[in-house]
């Protein structure tokens, strides 16, 4: 993050404390943040993501869809259609942009939500697994351990202690 972008974001966040200033200056502050984002080192990528006909835009659309439906079972062919790509083209572009396959991405979302459910809501591992779309507690536990390096209950316990 550039110092100009950081300054613009700080100005925008500071406006949240003063409703009158926010109403008058908020649109300008938001516009400055957009300007700083687009003129910064990642501006080309950010612009490409906003273009629905670009590959980045198509993948961004599927990422939003996966985020909204990560608890569901879906086929790669179905989300490739959302992107308007063939299965193999979609898979290649998704992996190039996110550094993981669509199913790995979905599993990461599932595991993050499961961790949150266990730590914040006190759910046990099996219940958290069911809540995020797993049918098998043992498969959930294996996947969780592979991603986070610890069994679900142990990991959640460690997180609870760290946040106290």
UniProtKB/TrEMBL annotation:
GO terms for molecular function: DNA-binding transcription factor activity; sequence-specific DNA binding. Residues 60-158 form the HTH araC/xylS-type domain. InterPro entries: Homeodomain-like_sf (IPR009057), HTH_AraC (IPR018060), Tscrpt_reg_HTH_AraC_N (IPR009594). SUPFAM superfamilies: Homeodomain-like (SSF46689). The keyword Transcription applies. Keywords: Transcription, Transcription regulation. This is Bacterial regulatory s, tetR family protein. It comes from Collimonas pratensis. The lineage of its organism: Bacteria, Pseudomonadati, Pseudomonadota, Betaproteobacteria, Burkholderiales.
């Amino acid at each position: 993050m550039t110092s100009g972008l950081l300054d613009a974001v700080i100005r925008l966040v500071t406006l949240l404390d003063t409703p009158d200033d926010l109403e008058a200056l908020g649109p300008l502050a938001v516009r400055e943040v957009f300007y700083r984002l687009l003129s910064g080192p990642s501006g080309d990528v950010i612009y490409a993501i906003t273009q629905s006909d670009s590959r980045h835009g198509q993948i961004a659309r599927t990422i939003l869809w996966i985020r909204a439906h990560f608890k569901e079972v879906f086929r790669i062919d179905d989300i490739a259609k959302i992107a308007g790509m063939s299965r193999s083209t979609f898979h290649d572009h998704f992996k190039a942009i996110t550094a993981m396959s669509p199913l790995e991405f979905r599993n990461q979302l599932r595991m993050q939500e499961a961790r949150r459910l266990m730590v914040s809501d006190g759910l046990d591992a099996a219940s958290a697994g069911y809540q995020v779309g797993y049918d098998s507690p043992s498969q959930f536990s294996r996947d969780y351990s592979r991603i986070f390096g610890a069994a679900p209950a142990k990991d959640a316990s460690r997180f609870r202690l760290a946040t106290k």
